[in-house]
Design a protein that fits this description.
8-stranded mixed beta sheet, 5 domains, mainly beta, 42 strands, about 0% helix, about 575 residues, flat
Length: about 575
């Protein structure tokens, strides 16, 4: 039987009960279960899943099981789509094997609401306590005495009850305060009551409940205040008198002082559960310093960049509140670096700030190529953690220098190197001292090439990233000069690039010149990392890469097209 000639019936009645749809046909059905994919069920316009389909062939009934039961009163419809052609399985068929044609039909929703309303939330603001339920309530009002409200474990009477949609609003005889603990209970009357109780629109009574926690939304208008503060090194914790919001304040609103010196706060973090703001200090405090903290609240009520409580009350300004100093200094002081500066000074840098003790010259031994050097005087910079040894004679650059330091037995209070807490520097043996060899050799141009408008210059050493003046270069191709628009050098690279106003034609000889200004320039020139300027260059040959016949040149010598830059630099020709 062809699909187009079907005259099979639609369901005469389709009903819904819970999650089961029943379709009644006026003819006997074939004993073949249709595929769930053939059906589309919508509930209030939203598609819901069909998880099973079956038939009762002798009774002309087909059944669909839904993933969830639609709510009572919901608008439900079912659509059935027949496959093209005559199918033997997976579709609805009559007993003679003919397919039932596609159809869409509204469903009679016989589901009844037998479920009592459920309490979803309870909130109180002052004397107004709101109970929110999972469905709309009937218009009946319960007795005030049906509710039991406890505030901080003490009963508070209910003076009025109002029902609005899915909410019951209770007026309390006494308003609750911010921070009060509130609970509520409800007692249902025995049996199914038509009035005097809370019930849904289907008449299902709200069941008795007890000791439900009520969220206290009552606003506290008193300002947030400082409670205590502690510091450990570079971490300062400030605790407040009640819960705070997760708003992150600006670190600049705080001022921290240690023994009168101001320490900047570089970061502020908020930990609402601990009622704390934690500041990260730019420099750590020592365990012997007296620390105070201040806070400035900006004018007006701020929503960001300040400390505030969960109700939005700003922290009030405070000045020089004492901070408990829990800093414990357990790390020994150590020598980090030593460097020869200007030939006649050794600058020693330590791992931490120094105490006021000035070490004796007898504690140090300076050896240059194994020869003992006399120390004429000693300077200290405690805050910078530095000791400077002034030498009687200058040490040439590049000479190998070593340093010894001898600590005295026991804990000394003077004549030694010690940290700000009095811990002595331990004996140091054969500490390597940096003694740089000064680089006075200027960079040298070793190769150059042009490709289109780009001229690439290769040097024998790394260059500084100062941008040279484009006007310092002259590029000549044949007898024509080409304007240099820009010049650039990447930091630490050995290559400079020039961008020309126009492309160099193929097949012409190209040379480049460079004019170095008089004296030593700090910018606008080509220079190496040591600051040595590139010397003036005249008519340096540039490989013209704009045609395949160009030659690679190094100081005028043809090295062949395959020569790499590394080969050019290594070449001894």
């Amino acid at each position: 039987m062809s699909h187009s000639s079907l005259t099979t019936p639609h369901p005469s009645l389709t009903t819904l009960l819970g999650d089961l749809i029943t379709m009644q046909f006026d003819a006997e059905l074939a004993n073949s279960a249709p595929s769930t994919a053939r059906f589309r069920v919508t509930v209030n316009g939203v598609v819901t899943s069909v998880i099973a389909a079956s038939v009762s062939s002798g009774e002309g009934l087909a059944f669909l099981t839904l993933a969830s039961a639609p709510a009572p009163g919901a608008s439900v419809s079912v659509t059935y789509t027949d496959l093209i052609g005559d199918q033997s399985s997976g579709v609805l068929q009559l007993a003679d094997g003919s397919d039932i044609a596609s159809f869409t039909q509204a469903i009679t929703n016989d589901s009844a609401d037998a479920v009592a309303p459920q309490l979803d939330a309870a909130n109180v603001d002052g004397n107004r306590l709101t109970l929110s339920f999972n469905e709309s309530l009937g218009s009946g009002l319960p007795r005030n005495s049906a509710f039991s409200v406890l505030v901080n474990a003490r009963p508070v009477a209910v003076s009025a009850v109002e029902v609005i949609g899915g909410q019951a609003v209770l007026t309390l005889a006494k308003a609750v305060a911010f921070g009060d603990d509130v609970t509520i209970g409800y007692k249902d009357l025995s049996g199914d009551q038509p009035s005097g109780v809370l019930e849904d629109t289907s008449g299902n009574d709200l069941a008795t409940f007890a000791n439900e926690v009520v969220v206290n939304d009552t606003v506290d208008a008193t300002p947030l205040a400082f409670a205590a503060a502690t510091v450990n090194g570079d971490t300062l914790e400030i605790t407040f008198d009640r819960d705070i919001a997760d708003v992150v304040p600006s670190a600049r609103t705080f001022r921290v002082e240690a023994n009168g010196r101001v320490i900047n706060a570089t970061r502020a973090e908020v930990f609402p559960d601990d009622r704390q703001v934690v500041l990260t200090l730019a420099t750590p405090v020592t365990n012997k310093e007296t620390v105070v903290v201040s806070y400035i609240d900006p004018a007006g009520d701020q929503r960001s960049g300040v400390v505030e409580d969960v109700q939005g009350n700003d922290l009030i300004s405070f000045t020089k509140k004492p901070v408990k100093n829990d800093t414990v200094d357990l790390n020994p002081i150590s020598l980090d670096t030593a460097e020869v500066v200007g030939g006649k000074q050794l600058v020693l840098t330590f791992s931490k700030e120094l105490g006021t003790s000035e070490p004796s010259a007898a504690r140090f031994k300076v050896l240059a190529n194994g020869k003992l050097q006399a120390i004429s005087s000693i300077e200290t910079s405690p805050d910078d953690g530095q000791v400077i040894l002034n030498l009687r004679n200058s040490i040439p650059s590049g000479v190998k220098v070593a340093l010894d330091y001898s600590d005295q037995a026991g804990d000394q209070s003077f004549g030694v190197v010690e940290d700000a807490t009095g811990k002595d520097l331990a004996t140091v043996k054969s500490f390597s001292v940096t003694n740089f060899i000064e680089d006075a050799t200027p960079p040298e141009l070793v190769d150059a090439e042009v490709d289109g408008r780009t001229v690439t210059l290769y040097f024998d050493k790394e260059l500084d990233n100062s941008r040279p003046n484009a006007s310092a270069f002259t590029v000549t191709a044949g007898r024509q000069r080409f304007k240099v628009r820009s010049a650039s050098i990447a930091a630490g690279d050995t290559v400079a690039e020039l961008q020309l106003q126009s492309a160099v034609p193929a097949g012409v000889d190209v040379v480049i010149s460079y004019k170095d200004p008089k004296n030593d320039q700090a910018k606008g020139v080509v220079q190496d990392l040591a600051g040595n300027d590139l010397e003036s260059i005249r008519d340096f040959p540039v490989a013209n890469m704009n045609d395949g016949a160009s030659k690679r040149l190094f100081n005028g010598t043809d090295l062949g097209a395959a020569a790499s830059v590394a080969e050019l630099i290594a070449c001894s020709c």
